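Q: Structure for this?
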Amino acid sequence: MPLFSKGIRALSRSFTVLVDELGEKSERAGKNIYRFDVGVPGVAPPAWAVEPLIEALRRGDTSVYSYSPGPGLEELREAIALDLRAMKGPRVSPDEVLVVSGGQHAMFVALASILDRGCEVVVTDPVYFGYPSLIEYFGCSIRRVPTDPGKGFKINVEALSSVVRRERTRALVIVDPDNPTGRVLDKSEARAVIDVAASADSWVLVDEAYMTLVYEGGKEWLFDMDPSRVVGLFTFSKDPGIPGWRLGFIYGAREFIEKASLVARETMYSPPMPAQLLVLKYLTDPRRKEFVEEARRTYRARRDAMVSALSSIRSVQAYKPRGSIFVMADFSEYLERLGTDSQGLARTLLDKVGVATVPGSFFGETTKTHLRLSFAGEAEERIKEGVEAVKEFLDQL
Amino acid sequence: MPLFSKGIRALSRSFTVLVDELGEKSERAGKNIYRFDVGVPGVAPPAWAVEPLIEALRRGDTSVYSYSPGPGLEELREAIALDLRAMKGPRVSPDEVLVVSGGQHAMFVALASILDRGCEVVVTDPVYFGYPSLIEYFGCSIRRVPTDPGKGFKINVEALSSVVRRERTRALVIVDPDNPTGRVLDKSEARAVIDVAASADSWVLVDEAYMTLVYEGGKEWLFDMDPSRVVGLFTFSKDPGIPGWRLGFIYGAREFIEKASLVARETMYSPPMPAQLLVLKYLTDPRRKEFVEEARRTYRARRDAMVSALSSIRSVQAYKPRGSIFVMADFSEYLERLGTDSQGLARTLLDKVGVATVPGSFFGETTKTHLRLSFAGEAEERIKEGVEAVKEFLDQL
């Protein structure tokens, strides 16, 4: 068999694959599994957002099937720019927005635009497990900056400064609100990230997949602090909840968007049309505002239920997240008792108690004694039940 | 502004962009433009193939919105494997099929799996303009093998042998049926491609986007001649005609598919669900056979109309294609008279006669005096009218 590329040889069974396997195991195990592993909401998008697409399909409009422009439908780019403004986010123009084919595609396109073999990328520890394998695929080194679990996973700014290197550091990757910790950057952290990146003349990629899910206080917009080096990534997988339809966007300086659109074209030619038509309706309908507020209320209640239930387990430390759909909880005492690691505990809880979680070690050294629990996929009552089952099991140890 | 990657710096305004601009110009010019430039059919997929998707959307099934497995829905991979058999094509198993997000994604994933900076890729001249920019993005050199316009663009096997180099040639790219020439490989050409690739231990990528559109005789299946080095690419953009929905597949040896699925995952996570549901229904419905046969009859009649109309223009040489949706025609005498090149002639015909074509120079040196005319987007009558208008214009020169 002829040769494979270096990039492919760097890719092995990633954590994404392991998480998928856990998920499939949960699927097979049947309905009674408490799904605290999933990263996407269990609600469909509102019926009113789907209606125009259904109508167009019924009429047999051929335009529904045709290519969109490579950077996305013009009206959608406008709607996204307006939506960011409405959220008090960045004031970008439509040509500073590139519609892409989902969150993974946004990550790939943004990194492909700026990474070369041999360069370095700085990430937090823990970090969403999608980033390390991608960085390795591009032949770059990963530099991890520890965060403080005792302080809500606050970024250690000193460690951050010490790890960047001019000429070598090509990008800082920040997830905000964070997956897996739910941390939302405060003003001083945001300022520090920008200053450190400027000192190394590095890009800052800010993954804002959960930007509409902040429960208390506001969100800092890194882009506003330095539009020339900050690039934002977003996916519509969580809001309005169409993960399988593959749609997202990248925003940034016009020159970045022009270059990134070349990569988007080489990888995908154009983003999928059905998702664009659905999201165009979703973003431009006045009911969108109420829909998001309702989602936020629902998730906030679920978060509170999750944190409060976890806190009732003796010696478990659960950080109450200000955003996203995840709680990171430290189970170190029980790992010791069981003589296992977080991966072992996750498997045990799935097998013995029917509760699916994701091991903290998948995200980094800092959370190697933690589990990540999502509160997006189950209702409050189920969250209480599921965590109660974990508690009962651990109490018997 | 911080640095961009080498890959992005290699990408400039590609022919794809130029073709899109021509297309947009045609759109703006209004309804009366004869669209011989388009690479996709002007017919929507059959209503019966869309119906199950519409029903699922109406019911609000959340499963319609969820991720599919990274390599595609299991049932769809099975349906594709069965469909290939039914066409007397390769006998592959479902795990030798990788569902990807359209033809461009198939090309990207296949090349990303095997190319490293500095290696060489052999293509025919002319070649579909999507390949050269992609090969440059990966930092590889392009070696072009001339074809013979006088013999239906038959591949020059001697030139092919002389251009491959062990250790350097990583892949041969063959489009079959060909875009832009409509050539369908005969047995001896197919054999030669395989032998030459084996001599250099190189991969063979065979782009079979138009595999269902062969009008006379059969099609050779390179994969059957050497399953260990041949990888097939397909897009559902032409059949059943859903270009904007982004779906295609790659087939090949299990090991290749496993590696390629890692790249597919890193770039897109999973292929879009709406397209998968539509194509699953399309491939597994008994009406599919009749639908394709009808499409083939329609296109054959359009091809005959196009070739016969072109042949009525004095000194224009039009090659009658055995497959695909394109006719390549040599206008060299008129280029001389107008003192222009094929790009100039294409612009002139669009401006003066309202006929949109693609310049042959976009595909290579061999066809620098040609135009590529698609017969997929217009009905027979319009094809005759459009070519007649070209004839009248050229006669006056």
